[in-house]
Fold:
Amino acid sequence: MSQTPSDPEVLRPPTGPADDPSMSAPQQLERTASMCANEAIKCDSQGARGMAITYYQQAIDALVKLINLYPSSKLNPLYKDKCNSYHERITVLQQAHGVEPAVDPSATPEEQKKSIQRQEDENDFEDLIMRDKPDVTWDQVVGLEEAKSSLRESIVYPTKRPDLFPLGWPKGMLLYGPPGTGKTMLAAATANEMDGYFISADASSLMSKWLGEAEKNVSKLFDMARHYAEKESKPVILFMDEVDSLLGSRQNEIGGESRSRNQFLTEMDGINTKGKELMLYVIGATNKPWTLDWPFLRRFQKRIYVSLPTQDARQNLFEQYTTKLKTDYRLNSAGLAKLFDGYSASDIKDVCQAAQIMTVHEIFDSPDYTEPVEGDEPPQPRDLTMSDFRKIMERRKPSVSPDMIRSYHQWSTEYQAL
Ligand SMILES: Nc1ncnc2c1ncn2[C@@H]1O[C@H](COP(=O)(O)OP(=O)(O)OP(=O)(O)O)[C@@H](O)[C@H]1O
Ligand SMILES: [Mg+2]
Structure:
């Protein structure tokens, strides 16, 4: 690239329809933001980091202006999301700038350039995945017995006795269900159960906004997983969170979306047929199963519903969280479980936290509150009661609506495969 980030010609916000006088102010700002973002993505995919950063920043500036000018616009959450993702990308690019790739001094300048690009790509890719073994155990995943046993049967048994499965075994499992119900935890616990590798990647980050790379990232991810499975002959779980985003939906990714989806299908076929003996499993998670098409679903032979907690599971969750708290002796977990019907496991965690924090606020808000003096016993929160939880319930609705649950059930009747 001969152009440098300081070249004023290059860094001018892209002109064009953004200057169209027939457009309203918000339309113009939005257009500027979108054009800057497109430009940023283009620079980014060509490795022009400095320019990409500047354009991402210009896109953010335009969106922030838009938000400030029209604070009540319904689109603001979307703009904020965009700002956050551009901001995240800027941070990644800035960090990558700080790491000087190693070069071989005896190589030709052309080879050196290629090697730098390769290493920089590698750094970006490494940012997208996690390879640490999680420390979640089966026991920590409350309820979901059916999901647990389905995963255990499909992954743990073939790993222990492959000789018992002459026809092979399913390699793709899809965990679907409302947010905060334990999909990620289940995948982590499965990986923990085996002496193997856990590779976790967020499909939405793989898709990223920098075109072309999405497809490459998918194939790289599978290469890496295969490499571990073949070389170390240990089972490998490749966990893909938000797997629905591989199908893409963003305007900017019209070219990229089908390619990465197709790449994914090809990779899945590879492990299902060619890699019969390979101990490589793909666990996908989604809370929008209905956005997945049939070719995509077909590759996940097991489709497991991760549901809201039952009465028993809620009771168990309340027991778990309230044992760490000071509670009134009349507080009973069965009663709490009944009260919080329809709440997800992570809602319940938040509810317990909110109730506890409420009693802490009382300490600070008390007219008698004084800064603790050394030697004196500082004030402690009072015991939590049922009525505290009722108060929290009035303020905090479940994160999943009954309508959503009906949609999951409906989808399950057609597509669940245990
Ligand atoms: N079944 C469960 N048992 C115990 N804790 C749970 C369970 N489900 C959720 N939690 C709590 O909620 C948090 C979020 O759970 P997790 O990330 O597994 O949800 P998820 O289904 O993957 O959600 P999302 O669809 O939003 O990714 C966990 O860290 C845990 O504290
Ligand atoms: Mg999750």
Remarks:
- Strands lie at 129-130, 172-176, 197-202, 236-241, 280-286, 302-305.
